[in-house]
Design goal:
The protein is elongated and about 130 Å long. Strand 55, helix 41 (1471-1483) and strand 56 form a beta-alpha-beta unit. It contains 42 helices and 57 strands. Helix 10 packs across helix 11 (393-406) and helix 14 (514-528) crosses helix 15 (545-557). By secondary structure, the chain is of the alpha/beta class. The longest helix has 19 residues, at 852-870. The strands form 15 sheets. Strands 6-5-14-13-15-16-17-18-21 form a 9-stranded mixed β-sheet, with helices on both faces. The protein has a 5-stranded mixed β-sheet with strand order 1-57-56-55-54, sandwiched between helices. Strands 4-22-23-25-26 form a 5-stranded antiparallel β-sheet.
Amino acid sequence: MADRSLEGMALPLEVRARLAELELELSEGDITQKGYEKKRSKLIGAYLPQPPRVDQALPPERRAPVTPSSASRYHRRRSSGSRDERYRSDVHTEAVQAALAKHKERKMAVPMPSKRRSLVVQTSMDAYTPPDTSSGSEDEGSVQGDSQGTPTSSQGSINMEHWISQAIHGSTTSTTSSSSTQSGGSGAAHRLADVLAQTHIENHSAPPDVTTYTSEHAIQVERPQGSTTSRTAPKYGNAELMETGDGVPVSSRVSAKIQQLVNTLKRPKRPPLREFFVDDFEELLEVQQPDPNQPKPEGAQMLAMRGEQLGVVTNWPPSLEAALQRWGTISPKAPCLTTMDTNGKPLYILTYGKLWTRSMKVAYNILHKLGTKQEPMVRPGDRVALVFPNNDPAASMVAFYGCLLAEVVPVPIEVPLTRKDAGSQQIGFLLGSCGVTVALTSDACHKGLPKSPTGEIPQFKGWPKLLWFVTESKHLSKPPRDWFPHIKDANNDTAYIEYKTCKDGSVLGVTVTRIALLTHCQALTQACGYTEAETIVNVLDFKKDVGLWHGILTSVMNMMHVISIPYALMKVNPLSWIQKVCQYKAKVACVKSRDMHWALVAHRDQRDINLSSLRMLIVADGANPWSISSCDAFLNVFQSKGLRQEVICPCASSPEALTVAIRRPTDDSNQPPGRGVLSMHGLTYGVIRVDSEEKLSVLTVQDVGLVMPGAIMCSVKPDGVPQLCRTDEVGELCVCAVATGMSYYGLSGMTKNTFEVFPVTSSGAPVSEYPFVRTGLLGFIGPGGLVFVVGKMDGLMVVSGRRHNADDIVATALAVEPMKFVYRGRIAVFSVTVLHDERIVIVAEQRPDSTEEDSFQWMSRVLQAIDSIHQVGVYCLALVPANTLPKTPLGGIHLSETKQLFLEGSLHPCNVLMCPHTCVTNLPKPRQKQPEIGPASVMVGNLVSGKRIAQASGRDLGQIEDNDQARKGTIANSLTCVQLHKRAEKIAVMLMERGHLQDGDHVALVYPPGIDLIAAFYGCLYAGCVPITVRPPHPQNIATTLPTVKMIVEVSRSACLMTTQLICKLLRSREAAAAVDVRAWPPILDTDDLPKKRPAQIYKPSNPDTLAYLDFSVSTTGMLAGVKMSHAATSAFCRSIKLQCELYPSREVAICLDPYCGLGFVLWCLCSVYSGHQSILIPPAELETNPALWLLAVSQYKVRDTFCSYSVMELCTKGLGSQTESLKARGLDLSRVRTCVVVAEERPRIALTQSFSKLFKDLGLHPRAVSTSFGCRVNLAICLQGTSGPDPTTVYVDMRALRHDRVRLVERGSPHSLPLMESGKILPGVRIIIANPETKGPLGDSHLGEIWVHSAHNASGYFTIYGDESLQSDHFNSRLSFGDTQTVWARTGYLGFLRRTELTDANGERHDALYVVGALDEAMELRGMRYHPIDIETSVIRAHKSVTECAVFTWTNLLVVVVELDGSEQEALDLVPLVTNVVLEEHYLVVGVVVVVDIGVIPINSRGEKQRMHLRDGFLADQLDPIYVAYNM
């Protein structure tokens, strides 16, 4: 292909330069591939040997395939003018491409998240201003990865886009060749679609287990070899191509996506690890074992490296102030600093004379004009802040030298733009700890600071109180003639403090002494060969680091002229620094690699650039390994403009050690700079291996020169004892020199660890008697004493024992096509700790014009590229809208702030991809169920270990003498019962006459809550019919509520339906007809119009076991089940409750429950008649409009016993929380309440009952009064607190033991503890035993098992339409498999345990407490352990303030978490990582799917219980309209 010959051809220099420009344009996306190829062939056409004609006829891409990963690529290349391509950053780009191509065989369709349309907002391009692509943040490795550099000619006409699309979508050609005969891609997709369609159809069968490590591979799709169909670009995940039989695209279906996810997850993970951490219990977290094949350092121990002698030049000044005095007096006209305006015109020239006189003026004013003569505000040695904007170096320089002359310590910091700047609070803490009280600033800056209405500068968040002092000359008093600053020789006093931002965002102050300051200037002068009156162009921040050292300090020592280019000018004109180098014939320029990159992008309009005057181009961030590509690309383009290769001088620096190393400028152009191509894999183990040619994952590093003059350098192991590294080992570089920082201001402990390090040899002997300073740079000293840096300690992420550098990961992400997807420098990589290991998170700003599909495609490519090149999984990849990440003052991304936002869930990403399944390899081993042991050994085992068999019973019903006359119609001495009796008689007549009903016919009663319901119920009993109470349809919501009514009427086989006139009309209305078939209703009787006569006789049941009524209700698991209640059970039930609650005719009971089923119905319709007390019914629906209604009724009627549901309690807690004072004023008094029972079929909600008690304590509610009850379908009330028993007890159990069905009590507040409250006292006549749900054997009291109940008021069976007898017999007539095998028990379907407490009950026995843990049907078996949804939900609700409700369920062994979002839809994606983190941390489970929905989507029944199974069905049938669905990989 053309490229090969191109290397050998002698192309003229200008053609080469134009080619390089073209490549740059292509890489920046300024021209298309086609345009590039056209222009390129035009340029080199004349120099090409004419090819044979045939070849030209072929389409351009069909030429001989290039083999990018073949070894030959790296030879045949060292020829005229072209530098070794091997080291160019695009080699990294190619490596990424090749790695992705490798992936294509095992590529699985990753299910794309579903998003509500309103979330997919396309930013309009007009409104969008591109972010400063610069974003060179200062210390945060911003320009990381220039990896898109300039594509070199080696790529020729390979279309990169096209190559990667193959890598992702798979073509027939082998991985290496990039020929374009894209065959069969769509065929493969169709095949995959078929496979998926198959799996979709069977998805209700036994779900595959994705939670254990399966060895079987994912579905391998055969790719047809021959077909060369022209393929349409498939959507990501082949969405368009996957049609199921009914024409619905599979990938949009939830169930299909889950299937897709399951298939992807069945791919073998990395091999499971072996060892375990013991997490103080039998659940063990796996620990990374060292890989036996991992590279180990083999070299000899390194020797400390000495720099050259620091030569003493006779005329070097004794201190920096002395230098200033010298130049200010002998050459006052010499220019010191020229500042530029935003048009690039010189704004101001500061001469040495002016600098000297103004600095003196500032010094005098600081010392004598602040405070009073007796009490000056600032004394020598005090710290003052310098707050100057980046475009005013002159004022800053004057203030800095003014401070040095006054012997006060300047602390230069950034200008706080707003009160809430990212990181500005931390700077405030630094100022506070330095005791700063005065801030020097310029006039313009002072005017620009935010002000309060009174004109004062407000105190910034976290800042101390400051006096702002403007240093402009016109505001200052002239020093008296006789005043003169005291200029001493440099000593050990602090000269200045440079601020440094740490990895966690905290800001430290590094103190630099006067002698270190001077020595550093001398060392730089010697290393860089500075001479008097040289001109130097400085683009860097002059407040700190290289910009300060060269542009403010060393320049004055040598009387140099600095041309300062502000950041604002660089944004407008990125070429400005190059223009100034030409204009001033500057000898030296100080830049960062981003400035070189910008110049490359912008240089093509310039013709007359000449860089031959430069003798030194200092690259300040040369320590970032990825700066090499900017240096190379820059040289490539500007070599033709007079730039010499040896001029480029990368340097390494750190706030602690100042300049660590710098490449010296040489005149010898033949000596090539040091390069190393290192294996990335080796580096993760801290070992240096020069990479073999074949490897894709390499890091190319350039040297940063030699050790500084007068310094000694060594590298030590990054953690633990500072032991010298071996020669082939990466360590932290340490420097021993006068010219380093002294300490972190005010932090002696950290100072000792950083500034007073004594490296030791392997034998333990110290290397030197002098302390070394840790530089924070990771690197090694190579051959010839050259220093190489491979990363920063701050960017280090240790993932399962291997060290990865954030910069490297950024570079890989940026090399992924399409490269223009993310702006360079707008990407942040950090690690978060989840489950005892660091996890990598990548956050990037996406281009405003990218579609959902682009984003998702790019994300999945990035994951694959990082996996291939770094062999590490990415835990979370988040894309945020452009320009939304917090910035540092110089425009880079503020890393720690971004991480903070991510962790607290306020990042607001627009796309998220989580990969916990692939990353988290240290989960505990799945639990293996042990084979059950036989009954005899259980009994013996329990006896031996002294465990009780878990059984308990309430008081005996038999002893109570009860004047139970005929239950129905006994006229108590109250009028109401007479009225009720008469009304019931009339209803009975109506049923017989109008309804023509027989004994035992079923009648549906559809009444609103109230008296009519009771009358109709007894009317049915008088007529010998069986009543079924049904909640009437909601008039505003007929479509959803009416079908339930219809279903109950049909399932219960009702012969007739009784109701009021109003509901009668509703049932026949037009809305009803739309919802159900109204013609299918049984006869409807309207009881508002009753006959006037009495029945001939009242029906008396002949047999106590005949059916009294049917109780229909939706269970917690969403099953509509009717249970049969016989007359005997009903009587026993009433008697039991009467006894437990001590109900007598003189009592009032307030019931705030739905009176249609369960205990609510029994209390309203039966107990009131049975015990003769007065019942007050407050329909719960009324509380929605008036939350105080229930409590007002309780207070007004002086009620002692009241019953409610959790939903009622929640309404009161939320609705009345702020109104307790006003309710008190209205006379609300709850002091008479002795029992307030929550009626429920679930684990007691402790948090809710406690907050309710606390809230209404002020209104007289006794905290002991609030308790819970427990009932279920087989027995409507098993426990009920009642009046005489001991208070309900709470225990704390170990949640991890519970997953293994064991009960282990722990102290309150211990980790993993779960509070459980007793579910009320066991009712009289009830016996309970805890049995193993699988083997039906009795269990000891330290085991979790199913609660079985034996009682006279058990229901007698399910009433089902199909008479599903097997189901019924098991639930209602179970016997234990051993032990007491005679008793017949009913199975509640709930898991719980019994505990004997220290309390005594009414009979003087020790009290047995029953604790309900959760429904058996809802418990989830994951990883061999039993999880209860409520525990996971509690964790999730805590994870973020916007989560109001949560429900979890499993589908095909994937854990699905549904959260309701109370907030803007923009917050939806914030929840995904937080939910995943919290479930991993607290439950050791990987969440498979996170679904974010609107408030109110999670269905809740009348008792306030979540209907998780309904939710699951709705989700799988795509009925939820979720805001966002994330499928975690």
